[in-house]
Amino acid sequence: MIKIKSIKTQAFVCLAILAWLVSPVSLAQSCNLETTPNAPDHRYQDNADSTVTDLTTNLMWRQCAVGLSGADCLSGSVEAFTWQGALDAVAASNLAAGFAGYNDWRLPNIKELRSLISLRCIDPAINVNLFPNTPQGWYWSSSPTAYDSTYSWYVNFGSGFSHGYERSFQHSPIRLVRTLP
Fold first, then answer.
1. Residue 36 neighbours by CB under 8 Å, 6+ apart
2. Cα(174)–Cα(141) distance, rounded to whole angstroms?
3. How many domains does the chain have?
4. FRET label pair with 73: which of 4, 62, 99, 163, CA 20 to 30 Å apart?
């Protein structure tokens, strides 16, 4: 049995479990304010073109999940893809007009996608000031799992957990990234 000493930590763990049990119901973001944020606002630069630059990783992200737009990411509807469908959608978008003047967007690898997780928050587990209204759920990465060649990694932006799943079965949203020169 694990003993948790802090009452505030116990409350945060209970909230995390409750949020996981009731998802995908939308709840207000809950953060453990006793811990230092790993994704503070000053780590990012809002480029004022629906993209955000992570100054730590030198990556540029689409601010909204694919299918959503607007300053608050509330316009449109989130799109969900199989893993191959996600790769195809990114390629098609880059061949067309691209996004924000760039046509080198890609699906992030698992390490890059995990870098967006705010370890102290849930529902969603991401910086909501720079990535507003992030739909909770599993987002595809480009990384295959080592244990099964038909599985790839994805990240849950509700809880912050990551897991591998079968590529052709699951339909999940995506968030696109590009590497800065």
1. 120
2. 8
3. 1
4. 163
* 16-52 confidence digits (pLDDT tens): 444 443 344 445 888 777 666 667 889 999 999 999 9
Residue 113 domain-assigned (yes or no): yes
For 52, the domain range is: 7-179
In this prediction the pTM is 0.81
**Tokens at 39, concatenated:** 């994704």
Q: Is residue 48 part of a domain?
A: yes
Q: What six digits make up the tokens of 68? A: 């959503």
